[in-house]
Each structure stands twice: as C-alpha cells, then as structure tokens.
Amino acid sequence: MTPPIGMEPSPLPAVPRKGDAARLRILVVAGEGAGSAALHQSLRQWADDGRLEVDAAPDLPRAVRLLAGQRWDVVLAALGERPDEELAWWVDALRAATGGPRLIAAAQTPSMGLALRAEKLGVLDVLALPLRRDDLMRALERLRSAVGEATIPLPVVEHHAVGQYALVGQSPAMLDVYKLLARVAASTATVLIQGESGTGKEVVARAVHLHGPKASGAFVAVNCAAIPENLLESELFGHEKGAFTGAVTRKVGRFEHAAGGTLFLDEIADMSLALQAKILRAVQEREIERVGGTDTIPIDVRLIAATNRDLKEAIKQGRFREDLYYRLAVVTIRLPKLAERGDDLLLLTAFFIRQFAERYGKRITAISDRALDLLRGHAWVGNVRELRNVIERGVIVANDDTLRAEHLPDEIRGEEAALTDRPQGGLLTLAEVEARYIARVLAHTNGQIGAAAEILGIHRNTLTRKMKEYGL
C-alpha cells in the first residue's frame, strides 16, 4: 500500500497578519419621514462610543450616488412593504459597490422566512425596528472582528480514501502510522490499535482491512463499550433458540457475520474478564460456540482490536488478561493525539471545510487567521472527531467564503481570554488546559455528562475517566 500522503510534506500556506479596523463607516438608507429621522438620530448618538462614522441618504437615488462615489463598511437599509424583493435588490447593488460593504437589513416585523433568506444571501444581520443599540452593536462587532482577520486560502489536501472515510495528514507521527499500516495490511496478523478517543482508530482498522487479503470480505465493527455486558456475548457469538429468556429464535453473531473478512472490536478494554476468556479461545482455536449451543463453529476472521486505555496498566490492575493482550498485540499501531500532529490540524481543517461545504451547498475557500489561531490553541480532548464536529458547525453557520472566528463555538472563542490567564512566569501544561476546558464544557451543560461528551466529541466513559483523573 502506498502511503496516502507523500513522504515529502507539501508546503503549507504562510499565515498573513492584519490589524484591527478602527472606525466603521455606515450609510443609513431609511427613506423619508419621522421614522427615518429617528433612526438616523439614534445612530448619531451611538456613533462615538461605537466607533462609527454615520451618514444618511434621504432617498434611493442619493444612496446609489453615495455608494458609487465613496467607500462604506456597512449599509443599514430599512425595508419597506416588500422586504424580500428589497433585500435581494440591496444584495445585488452592494456587490457592485466600492469596497464591498456589508448589508444590515432592518424591518418592522422580521419574519423567519426573511431571516433565512438573508442568511442564504450573506446579509450581515436582520434587525427589528425600532432599532436597539445592543442589537446593532453585536452585528457591528462581528463585522469589525471579521475586518480585523486576515484570510488564509485553504491548502490543497491529499487524502487517502477509506470507504466513506479518509486518512489525512503529513506529520512525522502520521507518516510512521502509514508505513506500519502498509506493512501489516498485507498479512492476516491480528492488530491492536491504541489511541485516544477520536484519533481515528476505526478508520485505520478499515484501511488495514481494505488493503489486506480479506478485503473482499465484510468489515464488521463492534463498539464493546456501547453494548451492555449482558448482551455483548450474544452480539459477538450469537445464541441458540431458548438459550435465555427472550431468545425466541437463533441469532448469528458478529464473528459469523465477519466470516472471510475482518472483525473490529473497538474499546476492547471495556469487556469483562469472563468475555475476554471467550475472545481468547476464539483467537487461539479459530472456532466459537453460540450462547446456549454445544456445536463448535469454525471461523475464518481477521481480528483487529482497539482501545483508548493503557492495556499494560490494566493488566497490572487485574482488569485485562495478559494472555489475550499478547494474542491481540501481534502488531501494535499507536495513533498520535491531534495535539501531537502539528500542521495536520490545518490540513484536517481544510479537508473538513471542503467536505461539509459540499454537503451543505456552501462555497468556502479560506479560513481567517484568528479562527486558525483559536483552533491551534484549543486542547482537542476529542481529537480529530471533535475537530470534525467543530468544523461542521462552523460551515453550517458561515455566510461568506471564509470560515471566521465568529463561526466557531462559544467554548472555543471563549478560550481567547482564558489563554491569557496563565500562571506567572509560565504557560499552562496540556493537562491543565484539558482540565480547564472540560470544566468549562461541564459548566455549560450544567453537569450533564452525556451532553458534555457530545460537545467534546468523546465517549461518555472517556469523559467520566478524565473527570476522575482531574478531580472534576
């Protein structure tokens, strides 16, 4: 198998820097009448503390002349009786205006339909009349933040397709994984994949299968941590009719379903010692018995196991069988954490942006420097899976061709201030950053472990273990 990324890493784009914008120039177009005068007067009053320069156009022809002759950051347009048509007209008009000003639309009764249309057209915001200062300032701060962000074109990303998944990365740590994967795939040896949750253990397992001699067979995956212990044995080995209460028919287990292919046992360390013994026998003897049955069934299966735990430590604690460990670890592939993969973060980010932009019908060609800084400063407890979730969310809410800091979750944007809260004379350790972030997410979910695990992109068992580790 050829490694999915070239041995000579491709160059990554340089990161430009850009200063913050000072004052925003706003053109108010609200037609005639008392309402127009009141709107203009309100903006005049907010101008100084909002760092704004405000001018008004009494009518549409005057607005068109001002747009053609001067550079504006924002046009605040009050919509009239046909808001949908007027919104579309303004979007088209501003595309041709000098400097490409952004549109804030104001309406007497903004509807959900108008808000959805505005989002699709890339309008900065839709606000209700009479205008409230806080609403306007929030919209302008988003724009000011975006103006102060330089854009970085998304790099071209080579990837190796693994079914519906992909292997992405060119860091030294991942190149080592690719080399070992290429060597072991050609055999039928049992493989143990070790790595934290979200590092891509199942993707690597699928790659081993697809490039091995049993590629034509099925790839059957079982998450041992997700199935209750009293059901896991039947799920793996099957059962005979009447084997236990509720066993009204014979069931074929995953070992048999994987015949001629690969059985992937994820989170195998969560399995009981009794069930580990049965797995050991299946590996050694190449045969199984269904629950409640007496006949032995030969199996022709390649076994790949994975865990996010230290199995040698589990052996010392009496929670994992040593003989099973050595049967599984014929070849061990250790996957690095995302924090150990350097500029793979940018490559993965670019890959996920393109993937989700295509899925959701967006055209996103760049990421801002501030957004990338936030991503690089994050602890990534959930590794690649968490990054994938964050980028999907960002692509969904993005309304122009750049993924910006404002499109990232509050939990990540809030870390900008936290990063300055460091012990005097030094930086936080990775463990300290991880503990602080987990604590922040738990506070956000009011202590709900399931919701926090979903945000972090990790299994709730992993979150519970880390909470104990950090005393949370």
Question: Which key features would you list for this structure?
Answer:
alpha/beta, 472 residues, 5-stranded parallel β-sheet, Rossmann fold, 3 domains, single chain
Can you walk through the features of this model?
- There is one protein chain.
- The protein is α/β, with parallel strands linked by helices and 472 residues long.
- It has 3 domains: 24-148, Response regulator (Rossmann fold); 172-334, 3-Layer(aba) Sandwich (Rossmann fold), CATH 3.40.50; 422-472, Homeodomain-like (Arc Repressor Mutant, subunit A), CATH 1.10.10.
- It has 20 helices and 19 strands.
- Strands 2-1-3-4-5 form a 5-stranded parallel sheet, with helices on both faces.
- A hairpin with an 8-residue loop joins strand 14 (287-288) and strand 15.
- Helix 10 (273-285) packs across helix 12 (322-328), helix 13 crosses helix 15 (383-397) and helix 19 packs across helix 20 (460-470).
- The model is unreliable at 1-9, 14-21 and 419-425 (pLDDT under 50).
